[in-house]
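Weekly sync notes, structure subgroup
Attendees: PM, AL, DS (notes)

Item 1: joint prediction request from the bench team. They want all two components modeled as one assembly rather than separately. Inputs as received:
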Amino acid sequence: MKLIIYIETTKEFDLFLNEFDNQFECEVVLGCIELSRYTKTSFEDLLILINIANKKKIPVVLDWDILNLESRFKKSIAVLEKIPLHDFKAIRLQDPGAIEYIKRTYPWLKVQLILENGNHNLVGLKSWRNYLGEQCDKLILSNELSKDHLRQYASSLDVPIEIQVLGRILLFYTPRLLLSPLDKKNSEAAFLEAYGSSEESPHNGFPLIENQHGTFMFNVKDLYLLDHLNELSEANITNVRLDLRFDSLFENHVKDLIRFFKKDISEKELKIKNDHIRPMIKGFYNVNKTDILFTKLKNKRIQRNDEYYLGEVVDVERNNQIALLVKRDGEIKENIKKLKLVTPEGKIKEIELKWIRNSQHEEVNSFTKNEIILIPFFRGVTVKTQVYLSSTT
Amino acid sequence: MNHWTPELLSPAGSLEKLKIAVLYGANAVYLGGQKFGLRQASDNFTLEELVEGVAFAHDRGAKVYVVINSFLHDKDLEELPEFLKFLEALMVDALIVSDLGVIATIKNHCDLVIHLSTQASCLNIEAAMLWKSMGVQRIVLGREVTIAEAGKIKKASGLEIEMFVHGSMCMSYSGNCVISNYTQGRDSNRGGCAHSCRFEYSIDFKNTEKESLKSYFMSSKDLEGIRLLPEFIDAGIDSLKVEGRNKSHHYAGTISKVYSDALNFYKSHGHFLSSDMLMWEDELRKISHRDYTTGSLVEYADENSIYNQREHDDNEYTIAGIVLESRKNQYLLVDVKSAFLLNDNLEIMPFNGKISTLSLKFLKTISGIDIIKSKPGSVVKIPYAEGVERFNLIRKCIKNDVAGFV
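Output from the run, pasted for the record:
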């Protein structure tokens, strides 16, 4: 099991190195404010962190996870060109533009593909992997995927898979600056933090960040899957990421966490779950049922669905007549006409007609598509009832 | 002289709205089937309705694009090929997709044209080049991209470029919001968005003693780009898209008419210096909308693009009904969408030409009984008016309605 961890300062690196040894595999993710979504690390500090990593022979990965508007893209590249990319094992990318650029410009640089937004099918994952070919170092998958899907994907892909197992869950990413307009005094601040709560939602205290890349909103509960590492390992999920960048998690818990990864202490001995300022959840790890409600959003009974469809009831005059908007040309061949009516409530009525009239109340023997026709009133039939020719008519 | 104009691409949330959009001037419509799209609450199209809708549009020279822009799961992809074959046989003009798995599946099963959905948040030239190499022919750019940037992306990539010109906007980068997933158990990228960004929030800033601020800080104003049509044309943007498959018949008709009238004016004159510009803008204020903004079309959206108020519906106008049948010199049959009175001042929206008032000398049930008020979900007869056609929209001023009841 390889530990993936963000380090943002020399102090954090020191804390990490105090516990680090070669007993466990790790990869350190470094970024800078120009390329990474929410790091506070400056470009100069990034260079210092690279030096520390090189000296200690710690494998480091560069984080370029922002989405780049065209004008931003040029600035990102200008920064990238000043970074000693050969010092990195790989680069982490989400923006397809960044992926394309790195593939073309730095074909020797391994890419770790961030596929956390969507990418919920194996065909797509394989396509991304094939697109990068030998340059693909690993795929970083969504924490919306359940363990069954993760297991399936890990067994079907020929590159390592990484998932997040601890830390904030990103819900929302916009380039617009949404907090500074509310805090005029501090609107020039490079990094604003706040919490949002809505009476229209049972969830309170969404962490919010605004920086030069826009505004980010996180879930009210953080992700915790450290009690599933054995299961993940058995499923061939070989890379697990800790995001300790917020709420002093790094400072307070990195020591224990590394001991845990070194198997010096058990998961039950970790204090992070109880000490953390927010509740922790497993997210969709066990199951994801976020689309089961969709079938209830529509009334399927008011949808036309077969070859005998005649039209829809558009008007009902009680004890008098029903108006239909017909959707096909038709001809009345017999004195008795049979229709099947399906009401919006799902009731089915088989009726026999003695007359059909046009909107001028003239009895007719035929009708044309999109014409209004009138038929006798039948109890229980309402507007939006779907009308079908009985198959025997 | 016939000057080049972009395609006007209108939303078609249902078969009836498709017909209205096409008849009011849309060059193309986009719609969803019962699966695979992002508007699960919209009526969407059954297979039979797709057949009818595509035939209706094609008969009138309009194109039909079908959205398959959910983030599909493996099981969905198993069901997709059959739908693709159906769409190919129907000769739909393109598929709008956001997922590489869907693109791969399409390429394996049919030869339909692929448009990249705004859900994929394509924001720069390099990204466009990547999607081009994947077989995409048109890109619906993220709403965060300016027209000037879009022009550069088009020039560098050689791809067709589509941009939103009107309608509601996600505050988030499209495809990068999962608030509904975690707070409501509904996958926002599979059609279950609960619009949590429209809620009011109390904001507490970290490390300050300030009291909580209440704000609709994540709610975006609506996009309106009619004044920027010259910029779209100068940049060579191929298609102008209007958001709103969940919106009303009134919306579908009005936006199609207004934008097509404006584009047709340009087609004839080569400019937009028309006294009708104010009228077009006025018409866009008569449909349901939040305050308008130009978003990021000119410069990146700033705080003026934030709506910051509760959702409300205080429109001056609403749809009264849709003409179902016109019996020359006798009557019009109207499908009533909202109640109106015999003495209401109604307006008729013709497919071509100016909107005119419609005064009712009679209002009857379909069986000919005189009434003074129509009820929604019924069909009524009103006097025949020359030039009025099936699917013409009849609207009423709600302010007059309120005054009438006082």
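Discussion: Chain A has three domains: 2-169+221-293, 170-220, 300-389.
Action: AL to compare against the crosslinking data before next sync.
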